Each structure stands twice: as structure tokens, then as C-alpha cells.
User: Fold these one by one.
Assistant:
Number 1:
Amino acid sequence: MNIRALSAILYFLLFTTLGTEQVLAQNDPLLTVGGQPVSKDELIYLIGKGKSSSANSASITKEEFQENLDLFINYKLKVKEAEALGLDQTQEFKREFESFKENLKAPYLIKNSLEEGELRKAYSRMQEVIRASHILFQFPPSASSEDSIIVLKMALKVKQEIQNGGNIQELSEKYSDDPSARVNKGDLGYFTSLQMVQPFEDAAYNLQPGQISDPVLTSFGYHIIEVKERMPNPGQVRVSHILVRVDPNNPNSEDQARRKISDIYAEIQKPTTIWEDIVKNYSEDPSTSQKGGLLPYFSVGTMIPEFELAAFSLSEEGEVSPPVKTQYGYHILRLEDKQPLASFDEMEDIIRSRILRDSRSSMIQSQVLAIQKSRYGFKENDSNVSKLETSLNQVPKSEFASQMKTMGLEDLEIFELNQKSYTGKDLLEYMEIDEVSPRTKGGSFTIWYDRFAGSLLAEMEERDLEANNKEYQMLLKEYRDGILLFSLMNEEVWQKGIQDTVGQKAFFQDHQKNYQWKSRANALIVKILDRDRLTTARNNLQNKVYSEELVNSFESEYKTNHPLAYQTEYGLFEIPSHPVLSQINPELTYQEIELNGDHYLVLLGEKMPEGDRKFEESRGMVIRDYQEYLDKQLIEKLQKKYPVKINTEVLEEAFIALNQ
């Protein structure tokens, strides 16, 4: 069951209109249930949550407050009983609660607020697209620090050439280590957020058109970036295209392709030309030629620049571009549709997925660790950690314990967290519990050390949440108690109400008066949708006797010949309960009535008087009522088992708080 599904069930179970195991500290509880104190904050939270989720969030009346208080007390009685039955100790409960807890805590963690900031920043940047050129200076293989300095000096020298009037595209062709520079001369076309590596993106978005960046270090090397243009994001475009390929191995292919695309373009200008036929006959793109040349929607930065520029230059649906040259050959494009940039809510999941796949994810995790370390008093023992790294970084996990013992390193303090010291021995114990071996580059000790420290910091943050974040405390308690309530109700009310057929029948016999048929009749009800077909329907039904054959014949005829003429309803109905039949004269076999501006023809068949329902005819209603009966019995039993005492002064405080 997912979080949203359980949340909906909890509202139904708790208040319909409208919890950690430790009750929130409060000197004067609102009430006690079987001697167990209950905070007024819990009542305020649950009623307030119900108010905020409803359309009317006005102040609550005394009567409404009392009604919600009664429901709240019943809820707490059931939770108390679930605990007494040990439902909170079962493996099923613990597993389910821990699963929900993982989801519930996520929005409150440091990581979430940092991710949210990156999401908003990325979407904000997506409002613009940038066109830029760059020159890449790569490091040689196995580069030393001296090599890196030489590359940086080269990048600074070329930047100076650009500032002295040099053309970045000519210099890119001359100096750039980007293989595509031989073709595009460093022109990257348009791009937006999350389409370049983060340092490159950060630098580009901090430049205005015409500005040149300092050397920007990325995983590819150093870049010199010049922003050519910034403009609003045009969103997505969908085009169909015709492709005439150029064979680089055939010296005549270029000229032949150019003549062919010119002839095709001239043919398209004729008013009698059908685009799909031209595509099918002439396009050399096998993946689209049989479907009108249609391509999926795309945004800036996803196609080669020349193609993309031509596509986004089209403004009217059906508009056709002149021939466009790309590395694949010559294209003619036709605009099919344009869509603006989607809203943040629509794009949030996509943006999050992209952020978690690129270097921003590592950056966020580093920031999370830094904040956690500062908040929870993390102090690393640098000398001891360095000693352990030197001794163990080349040692596999299986040899850690023996190596530490041999070298007497087990009792070395590696860090202090929240005034508690942790040693090499603590790290070994963690490694025994954690069965998953991390797959990452780096020294063996360093990997396990970071993993150990990170897990302790995460635990510390979670304990801090449970101890100090009131909203999270309330939410956690709501779900914990909600799962217990669900389990108890399922055992004592819902499943029992469904499976106890003996109890159902006994309840049915004791309450037979509640399961009565009103007067009934077989009937065919025809609502006239096309007044021109009224006479036809009248002739088919008037002076006829209701029968299944007649109904089938009428249905078949009109659905075949005039499907929009009528709307029919037929079968056995309770006359007083039906909106149309309740308005007729039940003594007449055939009649016509006007109701709410609609004309109805009614043909009545066999009539049945009021009378007792059989158990089989009432079983659904009996189960529902029997479950309500079992619920009332349960509450009465619990009220006797767990005395409830209410603090009237605190109750008044809660009422005032809800109306502030």
C-alpha cells in the first residue's frame, strides 16, 4: 500500500470529515486513555489537518469540536487495544511502518531541501536557452600537476588572443581538443540547463552575450566559453522531414544531393502536392519515410544545431523550411506542432532524475555531509585516520580485522560524533553488519570509513527529526497509529463482518424490518434524445406487453439504425426510489411524462408489492450494517476496558487554538 492510499484510509478511519511511539511531552495532557496520556497537540494536528484539506477551513463550532473529540477518543481507544494485543510488535507491522517511515522522513531531511534548491535553480535556468562556442584543452593521459598547469596556461593564452580581437571559431578550429570542432568550429548551438556538465553550465549562465569566460575546469579539461546569445526557451517542437543523404566517399554525391533536394523543394511548392507522398517517394530516412517523415517532439540541445535552428525558426503549422545542410545530408522540414516549456510540477520528476544522474548528485551529498558534520559535532581525528588509510587502503575487507589487530590499531579513535568517540573497532563491527560491499574507486579503508561515518550521521539526523521536529513527530505518530488502527479494524470488524456468515444471518433476522422491498416493477424507460424519433418509439411500445424479447428488439433496432435517438434503461426497479418511475401512475401499463425538460416513454411489466427481502438479496447491505454493528460493539467494550479522563481546561485550550 502506498503513502497516498494509506493517508486516504487514515482520514476515513479517524475523522471522515477531518501518530512515534513516544507521546509528545506535555505537562498537562488533554486526556488519558487507560492511564496513558494523550497530548492536545495531537487532536489539534488531526482536526487542523482535516480542516485544511476541506474547502471550508472556517472556525470550528462547539458541536463540530465535540463530534471530532468523540471520534478522536474512539480512535485512541482502538490504538490502545491494538497495542495491548501486541499488533505493534509483529514483524508485519514493523516492516510496514519502517517502509512508510523511509518515505515520510524524506521531505524533512537536509538532502531534500538541497535537492529542492537545485530543482528550482535548474527549472529557473530552463526559462532561457543559450548559444555558446567553446575551446577545449584536454589533459594528457596520466597528467601530472605540472601538466595541468601547462594546459591552464595555454587556455589563458588563447583567452587573451580572443580578447585581443581573435575569432573564437577560428581559434577553436586551431586549438580545440573537442573532435567536433573540426566541423562546428566550437559552436555548440543552443542548450539549456542539465544539458551540459555542471561547471560548464554554471559558467555559461553567468555570462552575457559577447562575454568570455576564464578557463572552466570540467571532467573533460579546461574550456574557454563565449556566449553568443541568450533567449527565452521556445519549449518543444515537432517536425516531419525529408532527407537526401550525401555519401562522403563519392565526390559527386554532394552536387547530386543538392540538385535533388532543390527539385524536391520546387515540387513541394505546387499546391496539388501531398507532403506524405513526397516523403514516401524521395526521403532517404528509412525510419520515418513511411510515416510522413514525422519525428518525436524535441527541445533545444537535443538535435544537431543546423537542424534544430531550422526547426525552431518555423512559426506556423504546415510551414516548410528551405533545404538545410547537416552532416547527414540535406533536409526539408515541415512544422507539425509547438509546445511551450512545461510547468515545474510537470517537469519535477524529469529534472530530479537528471540531477540524480549527474555530478550535482555528488555535490548535494557532499553538502549534506558538511551540514550534518557541523550540526552534530563531528570531529575527525586526522592523524589516526591518516594512519589507518596508510595501513589499510590496499587491504581487502576480509583482512581488515586481522591487520588492525596485528598493528594494534583497533582502539584508535577515528572521529567523535555528538560527544561520543568511535574507534577502528566500531568500524569493524559496522562492516560485519553491512553486507553490501560498496563498488567505487578509491582506497578500501577510505570507502568503508566514509560509508560508516555517513550512516551514523544519517541516523543522527533521523533521531534529531524524531526528537525535535514537531510536524514530523505528528506525521510519524499519525501513520504509526493509523497502521495499528487499520490492523485492528481489519481483524475485529471488516474481515469478521465479511466472513462470519452465521453472525450475518443472525443480524439479518434481528433486523429484518431494515431489509424491505418497496413496490417494484419490471420496466423499460426510454429517454427521447431526438424528438424527430418520438413517434417511432411510441409506435413500437404503445399497446405492447413488456417482455425481454420486446426490450431486446427495441434496443437492437435503434442501436443499429438510430444510435443517437434514445437512451434506455430496463430491468426490475423499486418504483418509489427511481427518479422517473416515482413520478408515474403505476396503474398504467404505458405512459409518457415530461421530467426536467426531458420526454420519457415508460412501459411497465409485472408489478411486485412491498415485502421482506431475502438474505441473499440483501447480503451487501447486511455486511455493511453488520460491520457498523461490530464497530459499535468494539467501541463499547473498549470504553469499559480503558477508562477515559478528560482535562476540561486543556480541552478548552485546544478549542481556542483551533479557532485562532
Number 2:
Amino acid sequence: MKAHSLNLNPRSALGLALNPWSLGALVICTIVLVPIVTVAVLAFFPTENIWPHLLATTLPRYLTTTLVLMLSVGLLAACVGTGAAWLITRYRFPLSRWLEWLLLLPLAIPAYVGAYALVDFLEYAGPVQTTLRQIFGWQTSRDYWFPEIRSIGAAILVLAASLFPYVYILTRAAFKEQSGSAEEVAQSLGAGAVGRFLRVGLPLARPAIAAGAAIVMMETVNDFGTVDYFAVQTLTTGIFNVWLESHNVGGAAQIASVVLVLVIFLVTLEKVSRRKIKFFNLSTRHRPAKKTDLRGIWGYGAMVACLIPFLFGFVLPVTVIGHHALENTERWSEPALMRALGNTLTVGGIAAVVTVLAGVFLVYGVRLSGRSLPRLLLPLTTIGYAAPGAVLGVGILIPLAFLDHRLADMLEVLLNRPVGLLLTGSAFALVLAYAVRFFAIAQGAADAAMGRISPSLDMAARSLGRTRVQVLREIYVPLIRGSVGSALLLVFVDCVKELPATMLLRPFNYETLATHVHDQASLENLGDASPGAIMIVCVGLVAVLLLARANR
């Protein structure tokens, strides 16, 4: 037997042939994975090992607080999102048709904006305590008791109010897909409304609830603005403290590695839960569950139960921030805000375009190459979305600074004059961080869109003499334009809201809307922060409306 019939070429068997598509997939995957690998290397081989010091001092406190915050927010968001989804999909009550979409709006409010609004609303000089003192005649804070606003409890409420729509979206879809026959059987056996929810609806929707709760907990771990404003010490704030205050990169990487372990555990747990709990509709005549009319006190009770998270997660922040924005109209034209807006549009726009183009290239390349390695690497490129921004900041800045210094030295020799840092001294690091962080959105949208295109179109075009580039431009691009446009917008919106990576990687004196709002709010200048916060919310609303349209 001839050797070539056995395909004994190891490079061919592994898909390592250097065609442009395989090489492109390798480059993109390497760029995405370098920050994660860098954090791991710095954590295990630091210049100055402070593991013993961290373990003896701050790390247990950071880890305990993070776990409490993560689990509490995940549980509260799961309860609120699941309860609201069940009421919306199973009952008719006043405002139920409006609330089905209004419950998505808290996604437009970054958690740190909600934190600023809550503190301003409930603090000593805020409207709530001021009104209480006027009503009861209290003179000072010693005359009455009021809960501590800047606390972990308040952080849990704010984060849950901002993130519960993740659970709501997935669980609502799961409840809608459930067959009505299962509930009818349960009802015929004597199960009441609560029994049908606990014994039928909840177990069938458990994978969706687990997936939503996992996303919520990962976003909680990633959060910096909220916990920093509430003075809650978590692993993310620990990264900032050790790096920016103690100037210890190895220590920051070691804390970042703990965050990575937590995130990987959450991702693994979510995938395992979905694999072990699977339900299939065996009926050929699937019928959705019928909605029940709730009247009287029960109907208004359901309405109030769905209104509370909407009011707390959207109406309260928008009202408080909007009030300050209207009171400080002169702040809208400040040069600092305009520069921050320009920087945000520039960096976010460039990052969105680069990310989406790379996602389309990768998916199309994997689709055409027929190689095993690019297909194996494709899922790995989504890992950046699970990594918190602070972790990516640590992992990107170190190798980028090393490369930047080598590049500056080389250009200085070639040009015979000093050259500044081109990569870390500009917004390049921000664009790279955004692209790595949100690449999963672009890749997922491109993969789903191209998966709906028949391979026969590709083969027909190739048989007519079209090149692969022409096939992409003339066939795929027109057919996937809608999905790619949605991905472009979603990536841009996430770039606008991203705070931890921006704070770590921005050049000196370089502000975006997120950092401008955070800096002003940290100085208790909510009037100065409110115009930028309103701009961020408006951008977020565009993404939520797009999401609502896609989930119609």
C-alpha cells in the first residue's frame, strides 16, 4: 500500500498546512489566548513572589467577598428573572404585554450608573432621607436609623437589578418552548399553579436558568465600577490595588489567575449542567402552554411583582441621572466630555469593525479550509468573553509593553531619533482589549449566519470561476449583512460600557465616556457625570431595542 493512501503526513492530518485561512485562524486564536496565557505565566513565575503575603493578608478577604457577592447576585437575579419570565409567559394581567419588553430595559443601564443613582437617591442629603426628616421632624442622622448605602448589600441589589434580564431572556424562551400538554397532565393530577411551576415548569427550564445565572455571576466578577463605588473589596478591586498602588505586576497577575479559575469553574459548571439535564419534546404536535387570565388582586399583584425590578433597574437610575443632567445643561458642552465622547466613538467604532471583520474572516476560513485544526480552535476564540476586563488588562499590557519597547528601540536605530511608545502610548491597547473581550459576539453572529447558507451556493460560484474572496464578497456578505450589522452594534455598545479594561489600558489623559463618568462620580460630582451617563444609557438602549426585535 502506498504511503499517500494512508495520509501519513502529520501536518495534513492535523490541519497545519499553511493556507491563508488556517494561518488566519491560528493568528486570531493566538491573539485571543495570549492574554490568558500571560496571566498564567506571570502568576506562576512572578518576578517577586507575593503568594505567601497575599494568602496571609488580603486574598482570603477578596475571595470571600467575591464569592458572597457572586452567589448572592446570581441567586437574586435567578429568582427575579425566573419569576418574571413565568408570570409573563403563563398569565395575562394588567400591563403584561408592555412588561414583556420593559423587563429588558435594565440591560441598558450599566451597573455602575445604577450604583451612582441609588446612592444619590438614598444618601443623607438625598430626597428619601430629606423627606423623612421633614415628615418626622428629625434634625440629624442620630435621631433615626437608616440602612448603610455603601455596603455589599446595596451592591448586590444594584448588580442584580442590572443583570437579571440575562436570566429573564433565556428563561422566557425556555418557558415559551415548553409543551402545554405537560402542564395539563399535572393539572389533571391535582397540581395547583405553584405545584405546576415547581414540578413541571422549573425543572424543564433549569438549563436555561443555569446558563443565565452563570452569565450573571461572570458579569458580577467582572464588575469594578459598582464595587469600587460601594467600597466593597473584591478580587477585581484587588487587581487594581496591587497593580496601580503597590506597582506589583506579579501580584496583580496572581489575583487575576484566581479570577480566571472562578470564571472557568462557572463556565464548566454551566456546560455540565446543560449536558446532564436535557429534555426533548417527543410529541409531533407541539402546543405552547395557554395563558391564564389573572383578575382582581392576583392580576395587580403579578403586575406589581414585574414592575418592581423594572422600576428599580431602569426607571430609578434614569430618573435620578436624568434629573441631574437637566439641572446641569451647561455640562453637556464641556470640552472634557466632548473629548471623551469622541474617544469613545473612535475607539469603540474601530474595535467593533476590527472584531466583526476578524470574526467573519475566521468563520469563513474555517468553513472553507476543511482543516481540523481551525475547527478545533474556533471554540477557543470565545474564551475572551468569559475573561473579566481587569484580567485581560493585565494579560494584554505586559506582552504589549515588551513588544512596544522592542519596536521603539528598532525604529530609533532605523530613524536615528527617539520614537515614543506606539502601542501602549496610544489607543491600540484599548482596541485590542475590546476585540479580544467581545470577539465571541462577532464570531457567534457570523457562525450562525453562515450556517444558514447552503454550501451548494459556494460550490456553484466556485464552479463558475469565482475565487474564495469573490465568493465571500458577492454571496456571503449580502446574505449575512443583517447579522453582521447586529453584531457590529452589539460589540460597539459593549465597548462603550466597558470600564475595568479601559481604566487599566487607556493612555495617560485619555478618557472615554465610561472612565469620565466613573472619575466624576468617584469625586461625588454626579452633576458632571450625568451627561456622560445619559449618553451611555442611550447607546445601551439601542442594543436592547435590537435584542427585543430579535426575540420577538
